[in-house]
């Protein structure tokens, strides 16, 4: 939450706001807010090879994800200043930047954790007993689910993501959803795992062959994380 | 929108095939109906001809793979619609509309794009002159200002899409528009010059540094083609 007394104090002392990322962090701190930071990957850049190359992982994490974090902090800094100034027009103008960059930060943070090196314990379906059982109940079999999920991923027109979510209503059932650009799954629906279908997620390695990327991603899904998100044991929601 | 595509896409394809040169751009405004399937137009230059600004590898994948996929998807959508129509299954036809928009738009956009590029050693780069220059100066302040506005629009695309210099037929002025994914420019807007901001258009060479691609591409803009589209718009 925005701490308004800190914020007003800050604005009285200092203006205009700086725009580079170091200043943004400092400025947000002075407003009583914590700047978002790039989370460390839970594995090395080359740990997902051969399914996702180290070069892709490094660019994706250190450059793309970092840009979403930087731009989210900038947008939030401008937003709290607009709130303090009672400038509703600027607040509205910032909504799209907050959604895009905030979504990019949430999506990638979830994505890194729902991947794991092929052959690791976490990448074994055995780690997701209750989730797999619910998947089989919903789609009639795990292979049918895989087929449906892969088709949804390949049907995305442009940049976006595919997600397995646990719905808030409908008896908390499972559902496959796709989201465009960096739109996140928010609200009461719980994202179980997501697959990034932006071209930057695969192009250097797979070029236009995105079907091969989708086929290979199944080798590196972190079923332990997926199970924890499904059963509500995950701590991530508070981390983000 | 769909009816416009059905009419213009085969005409576009026919025009591009008929001459295979940048001059074909003039025929884009034609709405005459040419029966048959959409086909991949030849590039009016070699894959390596836009180097060092756009690599030969990018151009080859972009043309031979990506554009070909849109051509195939467009033909497949048109066939599904024709079959549905013959059975009176209009629900089925309607469900194909997003695919027609995506693949038809992809075919149209890329066909326009190839023609509004040219090697820097030939027509590519420089600045427009004549009536087009005058219109750009009037509507954007100056060519430099137009360039800056176009690059800002490109950088602001959140996801995949295109930015276009257009003529607004209702207002009679030039304008800048962006389109998501492969949505084509339509309505009162006539596309004069487009820049592809999909990651596949630059990623192999520029990676995440898309601003560098948006700077570099001005060296290979074919102002002759743009001027010709402007005169006919």
TrEMBL record, chain A:
Domain Manganese/iron superoxide dismutase N-terminal: 36-116
InterPro entries: Fe/Mn_Superoxide_Dismutase, Mn/Fe_SOD, Mn/Fe_SOD_BS, Mn/Fe_SOD_C, Mn/Fe_SOD_N, Mn/Fe_SOD_N_sf, SOD_C_sf
Reaction(s) catalysed (UniProt annotation): 2 superoxide + 2 H(+) = H2O2 + O2
Binding site for Mn(2+): 60, 108, 196, 200
Cofactor(s), by name: Mn(2+)
GO cellular component, one term: mitochondrial matrix
A GO MF label: manganese ion binding
Keyword annotations from UniProtKB, A to Z: Manganese, Metal-binding, Mitochondrion, Oxidoreductase, Transit peptide
Family designation: Belongs to the iron/manganese superoxide dismutase family.
Annotated protein name in UniProt: Superoxide dismutase
UniProtKB/TrEMBL annotation, chain B:
Entry annotated with the keyword Metal-binding: yes
Highest rank taxon of the organism: Eukaryota
Record keywords, A-Z: Antioxidant, Manganese, Metal-binding, Oxidoreductase
GO CC, one annotated term: mitochondrion
Reaction(s) catalysed by this chain's protein: 2 superoxide + 2 H(+) = H2O2 + O2
Keyword ATP-binding on entry: no
Domain Manganese/iron superoxide dismutase C-terminal intervals: 128-229
Signal peptide: none
UniProt xrefs under Gene3D superfamilies: Fe,Mn superoxide dismutase (SOD) domain, Iron/manganese superoxide dismutase, C-terminal domain
Molecular-function GO term, any one: superoxide dismutase activity
Co-factor(s): Mn(2+)
All residue ranges annotated as the Manganese/iron superoxide dismutase N-terminal domain in the record: 39-118
The enzyme's E.C. designation: 1.15.1.1
Positions bound to Mn(2+): 62, 110, 196, 200
Pfam families named in the record: Sod_Fe_C, Sod_Fe_N
Free-text function comment from the UniProt entry: Destroys radicals which are normally produced within the cells and which are toxic to biological systems.
Family: Belongs to the iron/manganese superoxide dismutase family.
PANTHER family named among the record's database cross-references: SUPEROXIDE DISMUTASE 2, SUPEROXIDE DISMUTASE [MN], MITOCHONDRIAL
Protein name per Swiss-Prot or TrEMBL: Superoxide dismutase
Species of provenance: Corynascus novoguineensis
């Amino acid at each position: 939450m925005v701490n308004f007394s800190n914020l007003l104090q800050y604005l009285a002392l200092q203006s205009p706001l700086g725009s580079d990322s170091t200043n943004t962090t400092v400025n947000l701190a002075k407003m009583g807010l914590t700047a978002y930071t790039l989370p460390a990957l839970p594995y090395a850049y080359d740990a997902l090879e051969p399914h996702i190359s180290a070069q892709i992982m490094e660019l994706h994490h250190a450059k793309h994800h970092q840009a979403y974090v930087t731009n989210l902090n900038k947008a939030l800094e401008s937003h709290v200043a607009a709130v303090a100034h009672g400038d509703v027009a600027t607040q509205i103008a910032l909504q799209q930047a907050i959604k895009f960059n905030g979504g990019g930060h949430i999506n990638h943070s979830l994505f890194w954790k729902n991947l794991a090196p092929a052959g690791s314990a976490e990448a074994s379906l055995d780690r997701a007993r209750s989730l797999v059982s619910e998947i089989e109940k919903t789609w009639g079999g795990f292979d049918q689910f895989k087929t449906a999920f892969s088709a949804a991923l390949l049907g995305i027109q442009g940049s976006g993501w595919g997600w397995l979510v646990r719905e808030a209503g409908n008896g908390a059932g499972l559902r496959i959803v796709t989201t465009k650009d960096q739109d996140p799954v928010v609200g009461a629906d719980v994202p179980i795992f997501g697959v990034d279908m932006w071209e930057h997620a695969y192009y250097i390695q797979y070029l236009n062959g995105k079907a091969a990327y989708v086929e290979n991603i199944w080798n590196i899904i972190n079923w332990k994380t997926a199970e924890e998100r499904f059963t509500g044991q995950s701590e991530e929601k508070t981390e983000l | 929108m769909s009816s416009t595509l059905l009419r213009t896409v085969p005409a576009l394809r026919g025009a591009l095939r008929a001459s295979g040169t940048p001059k074909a751009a003039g025929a884009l405004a034609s709405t005459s109906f040419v029966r048959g399937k959409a086909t991949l137009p030849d590039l009016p230059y070699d894959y390596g001809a836009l180097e060092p600004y756009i690599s030969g590898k990018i151009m080859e994948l972009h043309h031979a793979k990506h554009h070909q996929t849109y051509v195939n998807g467009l033909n497949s959508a048109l066939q599904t619609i024709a079959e549905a129509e013959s059975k009176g299954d209009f629900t089925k036809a309607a469900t194909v509309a997003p695919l027609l928009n995506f693949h038809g738009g992809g075919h149209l956009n890329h066909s326009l794009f190839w023609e509004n590029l040219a090697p820097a050693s030939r027509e590519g780069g420089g600045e427009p002159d004549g009536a087009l220059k005058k219109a750009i100066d009037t509507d954007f302040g100056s060519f430099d200002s137009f360039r800056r506005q176009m690059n800002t629009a490109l950088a602001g695309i959140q996801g995949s899409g295109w930015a276009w210099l257009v003529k607004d037929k209702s207002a009679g002025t030039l304008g800048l528009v962006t389109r998501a994914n492969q949505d084509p420019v339509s309505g009162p807007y006539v596309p004069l010059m487009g820049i592809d901001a999909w990651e596949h258009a630059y990623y192999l060479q520029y990676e995440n540094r898309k601003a560098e691609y948006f700077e570099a591409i001005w060296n290979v803009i074919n102002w002759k083609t743009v001027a010709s589209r402007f005169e006919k718009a």
